[in-house]
Amino acid sequence: MTCPGPVMVRMASTLNGVNGAASTPLELGRDYEYTIVLRGRIPGRYHIHPMLSVRDAGPLLGPGDWVTVDGDRAAFTDPITTLTGVKLDLAHYGMGAVVSWHVLWALMAVGWLMYWIAKPLLMPRYEALEHGEGDSLITTDKIVGIAFLGATIVIVVLGALVTNAWYPVTIPLQSTWLRIPPLPKQPDTITVTADRVIYYIPGRMVEFWVKVTNNGTKPVRIGEFTTAAVRFLNSSVRQPESDYPPELIAPAGLVVEPNEPIQPGETKALHILASSEVWETDRLALLIADPTSRLGGLFMFFDSDNNRSLVEFDSEIIPTFARQGAPAKTGI
Question: Among 41, 48, 102, 315, who pairs with 3 as Cys (CB 3.0-4.6 Å)?
Answer without folding.
Answer: 48
